[in-house]
Amino acid sequence: MTDAADLQRRTAELLAAHPPADTSPADFLAARFDAGLAWVHYPPGLGGLGAPRALQAVVDTELAAAGAPDNDPRRIGIGLGMAAPTILRYGTEEQKQRCLKPLWTGEEVWCQLFSEPGAGSDLAALGTRAVREDGGDWVVDGQKVWTSSAHIAHWAILIARTDPDVPKHQGITYFICDMTDPGVEVRPLRQITGEAEFNEVFLTGVRIPDSRRLGEIGDGWRVAQTTLNNERVAIGGMRMPREGGMIGPVTRTWRDRPELRTPELHQRLLGLWVEAEVARLTGERLRQQLTVGQPGPEGAGMKLAFARLNQEISGLEVELLGEEGLLYDDWTMRRPELVDFTGREAGYRYLRAKGNSIEGGTSEVLLNIIAERVLGLPAEPRTDKDVAWKDLSR
Questions:
Q1: DSSP notation for 201-212
Q2: Which of these, 185, 167, 165, 164, lies nearest to 113 by C-alpha position?
Q3: Is 231 a catalytic residue?
Q4: Angle made by CA atoms 48, 297, 238, in degrees to the nearest 5
Q5: 369 vs 363: CA distance, rounded Å
Q6: Which candidate in 197, 231, 298, 317 is catalytic?
Q7: Percentage helix, strand, coil for the chain under 3-state DSSP, each rounded to 5
Q8: Residue 287 region by backbone torsions, left for phi larger than 0, else alpha for psi between -120 and 50, else beta
Q9: What pLDDT, in 10s, does the model give residues 40-69?
Q10: What is the pLDDT of residues 11-26, one digit of tens each?
C-alpha cells in the first residue's frame, strides 16, 4: 500500500536521478510519468501507482519546493481534465498506452468536439454523422463549434451520431479524432475580447479507424457524461489560494487605491469576497470527495457558482475603476494557447467572463441538473425523449 512516506521517497529518487536544473522540462515530465508520479491514483504503467488520489498533494508539494517544471495545466486542461479520465475509464489498453503519456506531458494538446450550431444546450440533438464502411473505418461529416484550442490540438474527443433511427440519446458514439487528418478544417471564432481562443471545426469525409472508438457503438452519451462531469469539476473546482482567481485583482486595487473606495462598493466587495472564499473551500471539499469516487452532478453547482462570481466580480472591478475601467489595451486578433483571466486589465476580465455562463454547459442547463439530480425535483417534461432522432423537428 503506497503511503505518503513512500511517495516522498519516490519523489526524492526522481529528483536525484533527474535534477530539474540539469534536465529539460520535457525529459523531466516524461521521467515523472514513468515513475508513476503524474497521477498517483492512476494504475501503474499509466502515470500512477494505484495510490489514493489525496496523496497527489504530497508529490506536488515536494516537486514544487525543488523547482521542478509542471506540464502547464492551463494549456492542456481539456486533455487533463476531460480526455484523460474518459480514456482511463472507457479506453482499451492500447488507447491508454498510446494517449495518456503525451497528453500528460503536454506533448500533444487535446480539444473537445461536442457542441454544434444546432446542438449546444441540447447536446444530445447533435447531427454530425459517423457512418461505418463495411465494418471498417468510420467516415465523419458535420460541424462543431466553440472548440477551445482546436487551432493547436493534435487530438480531439468527438461524439457523432451513428444511428438516426433511435431516440437522440441512444444513437451516439464516442471517438478519438486526429485533428491533422484530411477533412478536418479549423476556423477561428473571434470573440468580444478580440481574441479567437474558440474555433469552429468542419469535418468532411474524415476517416476514423474503429480502433479509435471509445466505448460501445451507440453508447456515446453515457461515455460523454464522464467527460462532462469531469469538465464541470475542472472548470468550477480549480485549486487556488485565498484571493486567487478574479477576486485577487479587485482586492489588490481596493487596498492600493483608497481614493476609489465608496461605502456601497465596500459592502459589495465584502459580500463577493466571502462568496469567493466559500466557493474556494467548497471546491476543496469537492476535490476531497473525488478521492473516494467519480465526479457527480455536484460539479454542476461549482461551475454555476464560478460563472456567476466571475461575472459579478469583474463587473464590480470595472465600476471601482470608473473611466479607467473602460480602457482596453489591445483588440488585435489573436489566437491564444490559453486563457489568462488575471494577466490582463479589468476590461478584458469583464468581457471574457461573459463566456463563463456558456462554456462548459450553460447556466440554465446546470440549474436543471442541480434541480433534478442533486435536489431530486421532478424533471421537466421531455416530449422528444422517445422519438427517433430522424423524426425530430429541426
A1: EEEEEEEE-GGG
A2: 185
A3: yes
A4: 55
A5: 10
A6: 231
A7: 45, 15, 40
A8: alpha
A9: 999 999 999 999 888 999 999 999 999 999
A10: 999 999 999 999 999 9
